[in-house]
């Protein structure tokens, strides 16, 4: 079975998963480039080593990355002049030119929390090559509604275990969700006496779920995202500051993380703002603002929220 994904950069992750369920013998992704995240981008970067991104032919290596100057039909007459005018208008480093002509992926937006070198370092932290030392166990729960993921993650020493993530179908009572979390706590080896080592997002629906956990004997710690930062000169709130704390750990590769492509995508797309009203301090973009900007296409960064805590 051969499965071909044309215009792959615009295909949703659900469709890519459906393709994988068909168990194809060969999968081919074809597309112009786009933002540096998602399954098409992952196939080109080939972190798993399972993708063929070039081939040896007649003693020469042919890379499957074709820019406009390798397409003879684009290099003649008015077509060539139109492409040159596009470069002149937008610039060679613009997303438009990088995607349409240069076969290069690009970052979305001007203020990205994680720069390209940070994403490279994050991949290194997920490579399995970072030395692991065991120590204190800490857990964090991120609670979501409206179809977003609910997550539970935990760290042992410098190792972040695979994040447990799921979605609730329809309205689920906070007490039922609390029971699900308790099962994940016990699966991870936590007991009620360890509840002080587990944190939970106290915003919105989270406050109700945490109250149910407390009633069931799991007195996990409530965390409010908008509390004051330690560095009040540079950050609006502690939540924003924690992203930079995590960046420092990643930059020094002092943390080992179970491989998670969804986490990589969420980190790649996370943005921040600097407003005059905030004295030009850093504030990470709210989840609501990210959804409105992307018209619902950008997933909620729940796994990233889990690891930064």
Which secondary structure elements does this structure contain, and how are they paired or packed?
Layout: E1 2-6, H1 13-21, E2 26-30, H2 39-45, E3 54-57, E4 60-63, H3 77-90, H4 95-100, H5 116-125, E5 137-142, E6 150-156, E7 159-160, E8 164-166, H6 174-187, E9 198-201, H7 205-215, E10 221-223, H8 238-251, E11 256-257, H9 261-269, E12 272-274, E13 282-284, H10 287-293, H11 302-308
Parallel strand pairs: 1-2, 5-9, 7-11, 9-10
Antiparallel strand pairs: 3-4, 5-6, 6-7, 6-8, 12-13
Helix pairs in contact: 6-7
What does this structure look like?
It contains eleven helices and 13 strands. A hairpin with a 7-residue loop joins β12 and β13. It has helices spanning 13-21, 39-45, 77-90, 95-100, 116-125, 174-187, 205-215, 238-251, 261-269, 287-293, 302-308; strands spanning 2-6, 26-30, 54-57, 60-63, 137-142, 150-156, 159-160, 164-166, 198-201, 221-223, 256-257, 272-274, 282-284. α6 (174-187) crosses α7. The strands form four sheets. Strands 5, 6, 7, 8, 9, 10 and 11 form a seven-stranded mixed sheet that branches. The protein is an alpha/beta fold and 309 residues long. It is 35% helix and 17% strand.
């Amino acid at each position: 079975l051969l499965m071909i994904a044309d215009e792959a950069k615009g295909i949703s992750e659900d469709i890519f998963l459906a393709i994988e369920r068909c168990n194809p013998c060969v999968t081919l992704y074809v597309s112009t480039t786009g933002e540096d995240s998602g399954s098409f981008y992952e196939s080109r970067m080939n972190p798993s080593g399972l993708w063929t991104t070039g081939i040896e032919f007649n003693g020469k290596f042919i890379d499957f990355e074709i820019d406009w100057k390798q397409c003879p039909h684009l290099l003649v007459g008015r077509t060539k002049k139109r492409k040159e005018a596009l470069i002149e208008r937008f610039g060679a480093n613009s997303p438009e030119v990088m995607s349409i002509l240069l076969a290069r992926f690009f970052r979305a937006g001007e203020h990205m929390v994680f720069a390209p070198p940070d994403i490279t370092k994050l991949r290194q932290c997920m490579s399995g090559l970072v030395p692991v030392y065991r120590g204190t166990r800490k857990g964090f729960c991120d609670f979501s509604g409206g179809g977003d993921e609910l997550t539970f993650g935990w760290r042992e020493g410098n190792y972040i275990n695979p994040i447990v993530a799921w979605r609730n179908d329809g309205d689920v009572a906070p007490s039922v969700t609390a029971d699900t979390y308790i099962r994940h706590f016990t699966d991870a080896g936590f007991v009620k006496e360890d509840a002080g080592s587990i944190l939970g997002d106290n915003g919105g629906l989270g406050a109700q779920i945490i109250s149910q956990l407390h009633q069931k004997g799991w007195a996990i710690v409530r965390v409010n995202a908008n509390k004051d930062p330690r560095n009040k000169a540079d950050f609006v709130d502690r939540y924003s500051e924690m992203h930079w704390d995590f960046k420092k750990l990643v930059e020094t590769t002092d943390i080992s993380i179970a491989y998670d492509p969804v986490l990589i995508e969420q980190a790649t797309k996370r943005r921040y703002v600097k407003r005059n009203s905030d004295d030009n301090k850093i504030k990470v973009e709210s989840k609501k603002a990210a959804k409105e900007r992307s018209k619902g296409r950008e997933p909620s960064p729940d796994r990233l929220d889990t690891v930064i805590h």
